[in-house]
Design brief:
There is one protein chain. By secondary structure, the protein is mainly α. It has one domain. 76% of the residues lie in helices and 0% in strands. The protein has nine helices and no strands. Helix 2 packs across helix 4, helix 3 crosses helix 8 and helix 5 runs parallel beside helix 8. The longest helix is centred in the C-terminal third of the chain and has 40 residues. It starts with 8 loop residues before the first helix and ends with a helix.
């Protein structure tokens, strides 16, 4: 398998520049993360310079559709207040999507094929949703919900606390391993096929990788929304949802009568 791996030209060029500056060499995934970040930053500047309300371009329309889709999911999972989480959810989606797609370009690799990158994304999401949970509920009530989640009786706290702690810690593991396993496995299959029959044979797998790469970015963003919803959901939200449901039932019963 080691014979399939070779240092990328962009990594060689970057490390040569770092060496000239007296800095240590950077591993492949760090360089590729930098490339992805640079692509997204330049794209954002380009789109911002060409924003138009009267005559939007095709690329602007695509981005608006993506934003509208994510906003709809945030409202569906979290409510109206979920829109404020769009910067993180949108950024994580675009970063992972671009990182997955860049590996389809010959001579480049996906930084998400490295566990270091996916763990970094997972830890970012994990820390962020805990911070938002503390901001929404306060430190005391937020910590209390680990021992007594909404709907669970208080006497189950000794059982629920370790279960909740393990559940939250396992989220980092599941987020990082799911993304890493899919992208790394896909790139290894493409490299093996290309080493046997180059050029044409890997194309079907690369096309499939476009679909799975998009799906993995969507799943990561969706799970981020779900974790945020659980963190910022307060007791008031539970009471409001219950009252809203009861109101609907009352209207339905009245209409039936």
């Amino acid at each position: 398998m080691d014979k399939l791996h070779h240092e990328l030209w962009i990594v060689q060029a970057t490390n040569a520049l770092l060496a000239a500056l007296g800095l240590p060499a950077a591993p492949d995934h760090i360089v590729m993360c930098g490339v992805v970040t640079l692509i997204l930053a330049l794209t954002a500047l380009l789109v911002r310079a060409r924003l138009s309300v009267e005559n939007p371009g095709k690329f602007q329309l695509v981005l608006e559709d993506i934003v509208g889709f994510l906003v709809g999911l945030l409202k569906q999972n979290i409510g109206e207040k979920g829109v404020r989480f769009l910067p993180l959810v949108g950024s994580i989606f675009l970063f992972i999507f671009t990182a997955n797609m860049i590996g389809k370009i010959p001579g480049l690799i996906s930084p998400t094929a490295s566990l270091n990158t996916t763990v970094g994304c997972a830890v970012t999401v994990w820390i962020y949703y805990h911070i938002q949970g503390v901001r929404a509920q306060g430190i005391g009530p937020y910590l209390l919900h680990f021992a007594a989640p909404p709907g669970a009786p208080v006497w189950m706290a000794p059982i629920m606390l370790p279960i909740e702690l393990i559940s939250h810690l396992s989220r980092m593991l599941s987020l990082s391993l799911r993304l890493f396993g899919n992208i790394f496995g896909e790139e290894m299959v493409i490299l093996i096929i290309a080493s046997i029959i180059p050029f044409i044979a890997p194309l079907p797998m690369m096309l499939l990788g476009v679909v799975t790469g998009t799906l993995q970015a969507f799943i990561f963003a969706l799970l981020t929304m779900i974790y945020l919803a659980g963190a910022v959901h307060t007791a008031h939200d539970h009471d409001e949802a219950h009252a809203h449901g009861a109101s609907h039932e009352g209207h339905a019963a009245h209409a039936h009568a």
